[in-house]
Write a structure and sequence with these properties.
Blueprint lengths: L13 H15 L33 H4 L31 H18 L8 H21 L18
Helix pairs in contact: 3-4
Length: about 160
């Protein structure tokens, strides 16, 4: 019994398949403007000339000899370009008394949790009080959030998400 199977897509057939693919691309006109590596030599393109010909004498590079620094494109200084300067941000809104009270409850809850000794309390009494103060402050802030547009907005508010 032969364990090796004969198949047409094995490694023996790779070169033939590649040649078919290349021939199909050449029929379509792909790559006709490409430089063939066999045709590329030092005589046809001076930029491809090697620095040393192997005979001990250096070959002159005409591409380097024809270099003119005035032909370089001008380099732009990024500072010269116009940059977008954003407008000044609007000032923070004035906090209302109820917002300040909610923030005060939040700070009081953190202080009772971290250092109940400041108020002369033990941690077994300060911890539940701090949790109540934290929950009350956060709840107060959440309940104060608005679902309506601000009162000073006009009839055309644009797109609102």
């Amino acid at each position: 019994m032969n364990a090796r199977r004969d198949s047409t897509d094995g490694p023996e057939n790779v070169d033939e398949l590649f040649a078919e693919i290349v021939a199909g691309l050449e029929r379509d006109g792909v790559g006709k403007d490409w430089l063939d590596l066999d045709e590329a030599n030092a005589d046809s393109d001076p930029a491809l000339a090697a620095a040393d010909t192997g005979h001990g004498e250096p070959e002159q590079r005409t591409a380097v000899a024809d270099f003119d620094p005035d032909d370089e494109p001008e380099r732009r200084d990024p500072a010269d370009e116009d940059h977008y300067v954003p407008p000044e941000p609007p000032p923070f809104p004035v906090l209302r008394a109820s917002t300040l009270a909610a923030l005060g409850l939040f700070v009081l809850g953190i202080l009772l949790l971290v250092a109940p000794g400041i108020f002369g309390l033990q941690s077994r009494i300060g911890t539940p009080l701090s949790l109540v103060a934290l929950c009350a402050g956060v709840g107060w802030l959440i309940l104060r959030m608005r679902n309506t547009p601000p009162p000073d907005s006009g009839w055309d508010d644009g797109a609102q998400v």
